[in-house]
Amino acid sequence: MRLGVLDVGSNTVHLLVVDAHHGAHPWPAHSEKAVLRLAEQIGKDGALTKAGADALVKTAADAMASAARLVTDDLLAFATSAVRDATNSAAVLARVRNETGVRLQVLSGADEARMTFLAVRRWFGWSAGRLLVMDIGGGSLELAAGIDEDPDIAMSLPLGAGRLSRERLRLDGHTSAPPPAHHVEELREYVEEALDPAVAKLSEFGWDRPVATSKTFRTLARLTGAAPSAAGLWAPRRLHRGGLRQVLGFIRHIPPSELPSLEGVSASRAHQLLAGAVVAEATMRRLDIDYVDVCPWALREGVILRRLDQLEPA
What we know:
By secondary structure, the protein is of the alpha/beta class. The strands form two sheets. Strands 8-7-6-9-11-10 form a six-stranded mixed β-sheet, with helices on both faces. It has a five-stranded mixed β-sheet with strand order 3-2-1-4-5, with helices on both faces. Helix 5 crosses helix 9, helix 6 runs parallel beside helix 9 and helix 7 packs across helix 9. It starts with a strand and ends in a 5-residue tail after the last helix.
């Protein structure tokens, strides 16, 4: 069957269409993205602005049209932290449903962690042993650990790269100067404190293989010498903590507007890279992780795999 997944994230809205059946590898047939930065469209009252809601409705309508054109059998639509945290979330979801026909399901942070963990487990297989999975999104950091396809522990922390860039570093897509040193230090202290309960809980479980997903980790790995995206999905990629410290040391002094000149850094997320690097380094250090393997599958693939598991074998 042909499945479509519409992922309404904090930075982008991504439609992924795959051809798959129960027990098979899902093969991408179509992909399209729109950079909405919904997390940056949250007003002082905590509500998604009208401009943000308008953009979401238009993008959802475009995705529905693409899914119909591609003769998609099913469209799975979900939203993560930006919509989840908005005070007018219910009204926005109702508007999207009424005007486009797209029924967005809001995932909890723990569900995000579970779905991502499933995708990583399927990618690496049972031989990976106990997994620790880390995912830095625009609005939150997801962590999960376990030996089965359903993790023993799954949690979400408000440590997304977009959220911290906006709230702690005062950076946005138009910032032309690097943040002052005291802002970076204050961010580091905030992240350390926020990680305390997660570190305490995860330390009770242990793991054999630490894995990272998400655009943030892929970009950081590329900056430390990992294979470029052109090498394909199957190329092994790894991010070492030592290399990450070096990257963090120099990007903190580079204006966000100049970061896209570095290979692997996208212009739409350049201003979020520093905050993402701070979270990645602090998480790896606090959990005493020397390196993480980077998995190309994440939340979208986890949603697809869960849906396929619900289908009867042919």
